[in-house]
Amino acid sequence: MSKRLLLADDSITIQKVVELILADEGYEIKAVGDGEHAWTVLREFMPDIVLADIEMPKLNGYQLCEKIKNDDSTRGIPVILLAGAFEPIDEDLMKDVGADDYIVKPFESQELISKINAVFAERELIEEEVAGTLEEAGEEAEAIETAEAVETAEAVEAFAAAESPEAFEQPEAA
Q: CA angle 9-119-133, nearest 5°?
C-alpha cells in the first residue's frame, strides 16, 4: 500500500519537483498552494505525512502544523516544514508547533527521501516502544489479578474453614 503525502507549497515548481521525486518512491501525493486549502484537504485525504512550506498564503507552515497537532484526529500525522534558503528557521517555534523536522529548499532528491524515511522510522520506533510498554503493563496487570485471585481464594478457604461446623465442635472428653 502506498503512503499518502500532502504537500502544501505555493510554488508550482516545488510541487512538481516533489511529485517527481516521490512518485518513484510509491507515494500518493496531493499538492495544494495554501495553508487553508491544505487543512481542508488534509481532513478528507488523511495523509501519512505532511510537507508544509513555512511561507505560504492564508496559513503559513507553522500555523498549519500547529492546527494539525492541536486536532485529536490529525495530531499523529508527522509534519516536515519546508524553508526557503534565505528564510530563517525558528527552531523553538518549530518545536512549539510540533513539527517533526524541516528541510531547506532547494534540496536534493535523496535528502528529501532521507528526511521522510527518518521521520517514519522514528514514528515506528515510538510505536514499538509504546506497544512494548502496553504489553508489559498488560502482563503486570494480569500477574496482579492472578495474585489477587489466589489471595482471595485462600481467604475464602480460610473463612470457610473457620465457619464450618467442625470448627465449633468440642473435642470429646476421653
A: 140
Mean pLDDT score of the chain, rounded to an integer?
86
Query: What would the pLDDT profile of 23-42 be if each residue is shown by its tens digit?
Result: 888 899 999 999 999 999 99
Nearest by Cα to 22 from 99, 139, 111: 111
Torsion angles phi and psi, residue 124, rounded to 5: -65, -45
Q: Output the 3-class SS for the chain.
A: CCCEEEEECCCHHHHHHHHHHHHCCCCEEEEECCHHHHHHHHHHHCCCEEEEECCCCCCCHHHHHHHHHCCCCCCCCCEEEEECCCCCCCHHHHHHHCCCEEEECCCCHHHHHHHHHHHHHHHHHHHHHHHHHHHHHHHHHHHHHHHHHHHHHHHHHHHHHHHCHHHHCCCCCC
Q: pLDDT of 59-84, one tens digit each? A: 999 999 999 999 999 999 999 999 98
Report pTM: 0.72
